[in-house]
TrEMBL record:
Source organism of this protein record: Echinops telfairi
Keywords linked to the UniProt accession: 2Fe-2S, FAD, Flavoprotein, Iron, Iron-sulfur, Metal-binding, Oxidoreductase
Residue segments, region Disordered: 27-46
Gene3D superfamilies: 3.30.390.30, FAD/NAD(P)-binding domain, Rieske [2Fe-2S] iron-sulphur domain
SUPFAM superfamilies per the UniProt record, alphabetical: FAD/NAD(P)-binding domain, FAD/NAD-linked reductases, dimerisation (C-terminal) domain, ISP domain
Encoding gene, per UniProt annotation: AIFM3
Domain of life (superkingdom): Eukaryota
Pfam families in the record: Pyr_redox_2, Reductase_C, Rieske
Designated name of the protein: Apoptosis-inducing factor 3 isoform X2
Family the UniProt entry places it in: Belongs to the FAD-dependent oxidoreductase family.
């Protein structure tokens, strides 16, 4: 079973397209999506059929009523390089004109429903304005992350100077398309002791790796194991929406994994990996042989080491159950958050409406200081203070005091005593790689797994991705970095899968992340560690600004609030290989009061 890993010979098998029914209405809604599998015959090849092309197979005599066709505009209404949202029946379509050709696609990003017409069109793809996902305008295929689904692509024709679009009503309603995937043709019988691909960790990296293998025509056994009791879910939502239930966060439903033969082992802990015999040993003694291995174990949150650390109602947020318990305990009571990074600040923002009081304890002078700089950090701190969040800066926790075993007070090193019924600790994380110490797989002195651009570890056939790796960042001169972002984990999972199939893919994505607090989103692209200057355009007080982070003469990162699609625009420029110089930004600031950013892509002024 566990030997041969080559692509199987073409076999008659069934391919299923899973089309989720719910769509995201706005940016921070739940990422849940139900699916209804449709079975289609196929031959296991890696071609990506569009749902429209496939619908005719399901309905040999499709009724004209299943489709809508209409003129949507005059052919001169769009210039090259322009996008427009057009009405088609009761739905909408994104119409794009590039190099004299029209393309029609779904108009919403399948990730959280962003209007793509407000995104960035460049190099034959459109980039989402909210979180940076990229879609090929010719195929609708997802080319950069986050998210799992592609866009539906519609037929376009130009007749008598009018542009006509033809679309299936179903695709118009769904606004998303799951790529066709091969099913497993060698399912395990019972709890078989060998698999072709073993994936340790079911976060974004693990899930995308499994899906990519199936999309690329790989039809052997895939086992995905996780410490969690849940199927893969949208972990970044935990700290932004602590009330969310596991079923609202699930990235793919049970039926999806069953349909494509991706086996998920929940509450399954790998304790050792024997690379010589290609075997993983689980905590319960179960052994699993593999042919290829992906290590995507993520990280473990750091905990407090102070006096009283064992008292009840002190949490790190790792699971939906953690998040739900925190909200329950905080309602109408006193909450303390330790750490003013992304997780801590998102939790503080969410609890501010629910708790009687929210206090944040942080070692630095301002929140996000190392990441966003002093000025932006202070601006965000002020926003929090306006929502009654109290800050205790440049101090740390010296003791947690309990009453009948339950948290009652948090004592700070500054000798201040803060009332607390619940405490959330967000002081960083360490790679969850302890189980690899004796494996022979190289780890660095901090416990990270070093990989090359193909996500390969020091051991052939063993790949790693996600929060636990360091890798060479192409556009920062291959500097070795760790980037624990959701989007980056997706991209690395895909590259690992491609290289399991010997496709020689390399990681080249530009890091992109976001945070949401009090209904406001901050977006960030690049890698700003070591920045020596920040250039700000716009109005910090009004929370409408863009901040360029520079090192020497180069822009290395950008952050913005209420300034879309600037972060996606910068990400697209950096992805194209062009450097943005500090003097370009300074010159622009000198001459422009309008906020026009067309200089970035070489258009306009």
């Amino acid at each position: 079973m566990g030997g041969c890993f080559s692509k199987p010979k073409p076999v008659e098998l069934k391919i299923e397209v899973v089309l989720p029914e719910k769509e995201r209405a706005k940016e921070e809604l739940s990422a849940s999506a139900k699916s209804s599998p449709r079975a289609y015959p196929g031959n296991g090849t890696a071609r990506h059929f569009h749902s429209e092309e496939r619908l005719t197979t399901a309905h040999p005599y499709p009724s004209a009523q299943d489709y809508l066709e209409a003129a949507v505009c005059h052919f001169k209404d769009l210039e090259n390089g322009q996008m427009r949202e057009v009405e088609l029946g009761w739905g909408k379509v994104l119409l794009v004109k590039e190099a004299g050709e029209f393309h029609a696609l779904g108009h919403k990003c399948p990730h959280y429903g962003a209007p793509l017409v407000k995104g960035v069109l460049s190099r034959g793809r459109v980039r989402c304005p909210w979180h940076g996902a990229c879609f090929n305008i010719s195929t609708g295929d997802l080319e950069d992350f986050p998210g799992l689904d592609s866009l539906p692509k519609f037929q376009v024709k130009v007749e008598k100077e009018k542009v006509y679009v033809r679309a299936s009503k179903q695709a118009l309603q769904l606004q998303r398309r799951t790529k066709v995937m091969t099913k497993c043709i060698s399912p395990s019988l019972g709890h078989s002791g060998s698999t072709n691909v073993l994936i340790v960790g079911a976060g974004a990296a693990g899930l995308v790796c499994a899906e990519t293998l199936r999309q690329e025509g790989f039809s052997d056994r895939i086992v995905l194991c996780t410490l969690d009791r849940h199927l893969p879910y949208d972990r970044p939502k935990l700290s932004k929406s602590l009330d969310a239930q596991p079923e609202q966060l699930t990235l793919r439903p049970k039926e999806f994994f069953r349909a494509y033969g991706i086996e998920v082992l929940t509450e399954a802990q790998v304790v050792t990996v024997d690379v010589k015999n290609k075997k993983a040993v689980f905590k319960d003694g179960f052994k699993l042989e593999y042919s290829k291995l992906l290590l995507a174990p993520g990280s473990s949150p750091k905990t407090l080491s102070c006096k009283g650390k064992e008292v009840e109602n002190v949490f790190t947020i790792r699971t939906p159950e953690d998040a739900n318990r925190v909200v329950r305990l905080a309602r109408g009571r006193n909450a303390v958050v330790v750490g003013a990074g992304f997780l801590g600040m998102e939790v503080a923002a969410y609890l501010s409406e629910k708790a009687h009081s929210v206090s944040v304890v942080e070692l630095e002078e301002t929140p996000f200081r190392r990441f966003l700089g002093e000025r932006v950090g202070r601006t965000l701190m002020k926003m929090f203070e306006n929502y009654r969040v109290k800050f205790y800066m440049q101090t740390e926790v010296s003791e947690l005091r309990a009453q009948e075993g339950k948290l009652k007070e948090v004592v700070l090193k500054s000798s201040k005593v803060v009332r607390a019924d619940v405490c959330v600790v967000g002081i960083g994380a360490v790679p969850a790689t302890g189980f690899l110490k004796q494996s022979g797989i190289s780890l660095d002195n901090r416990g990270f797994i070093p990989v090359n651009k193909m996500m390969q570890t020091s051991v052939p056939g063993v790949f790693a991705a996600g929060d636990a790796v360091t890798f060479p960042l192409a556009w920062r001169n291959n500097r070795r970095v760790n980037i624990p972002h959701w989007q980056m984990a997706h991209a690395q999972g895909r590259v690992a899968a491609q290289n399991m199939l010997a496709q020689e893919a390399e990681i080249g994505t530009v890091p992109y992340l976001w945070t949401a607090m009090f209904g406001k989103s901050l977006r960030y692209a690049g890698y700003g560690e070591g920045f020596d200057d920040v250039i700000i355009q716009g109005d910090l007080e009004e929370l409408k600004f863009v901040a360029f982070y520079t090192k020497g003469d180069e822009v290395i990162a950008v952050a913005s609030m209420n300034y879309d699609p600037i972060v996606s625009k910068v990400a697209e420029v950096l992805a194209s290989g062009r450097a943005i110089r500090k003097r370009e930004v300074e010159l622009f600031m000198l001459h422009s009061k309008t906020g026009d950013m067309s200089w970035l892509t070489g258009k306009g002024s």
